[in-house]
Amino acid sequence: MTWVLALCAVMVGAALQRVTGLGFTLVSGPLLILVLNPFDGIVLANILSVLIAAYVLIRTFRSVDWAAAKRLSIGIVLGVPMGAVIVYTLDTNMLLVFVGALTTLAVLLALARRPMAVFRGRRGAIFAGTVSGFSNVTAGVGGPALAMFGASTKMTMDVFVPTVQVVAVLTNLLSIAAKFQMSLPIPLVLSAVGCVILGLTLGSVLQRHISPTRAQTLALTLALLGSLAATARGVIAILS
Q1: Among 102, 27, 69, which Cα is nearest to 170's?
Q2: What is d(CA 115, CA 159) in angstroms, rounded to the nearest whole number?
Q3: pTM (2 d.p.)
Q4: Contact 55, 17 (CB under 8 A)
Q5: HSE (CB half, 13 Å, CA atoms) of 66?
Q6: Tell me: the pLDDT tens digits for 10-24?
Q7: Which parts of 36-142 fold into alpha helices (H)?
Q8: Residue-range domain boundaries for the chain
Q9: CB 134 within 8 A of CB 83
Q10: Could you tell me which residues come within 8 angstroms of residue 200 by beta carbon, excluding any fewer than 6 positions away?
């Protein structure tokens, strides 16, 4: 039953990412770490994120803002190693609490959708990339920092979506490389890839009937519920 819930989250997350450019790991990440563990769950989310980002990028390649992507990528390269240190320092239960708490904070900030000066300009892009890279390798939630960057710079959705896919491919490849001690059940991986394909197909249909803002709100709401559950599980494990 837990596998079914996780795979449903993968499908929904893929659909929402197709519509908004973000949302996959926000929705699927918390449930994947509940099914597996904080380490392997995020690794699987990273692997699937590469596939989804590459698919969306191929379809939207011409609208990429390469200058913004370059600055964000500089931050990614800085943030991923810092996050990897946290991953290998904390034990499983503490990592679960950290991942859940970080995801919750990221989602709440993204839900606020308030432009912040710290995300503007060249330094703002590098800062957003650093935060995104750090939170992606630790919790699989690099999206909210990128969403804050988009909101603060007033980037249009048709440019934002392909630009963050470039960053997502780089971030998740670096995150996977930083976690060489992965151990994933092959049946779950194959099932998850199948759900990604279904989700992307569903997203192509939803794109005609739901606005990106509403889809993003749905993704963030689901992510908040999952992250709170992950945090609670970690706290209970530590106290028991």
Answers
A1: 69
A2: 18
A3: 0.78
A4: no
A5: 2
A6: 888 888 777 776 667
A7: 38-60, 66-89, 92-112, 121-139
A8: 2-239
A9: yes
A10: 14, 15, 18, 52, 55
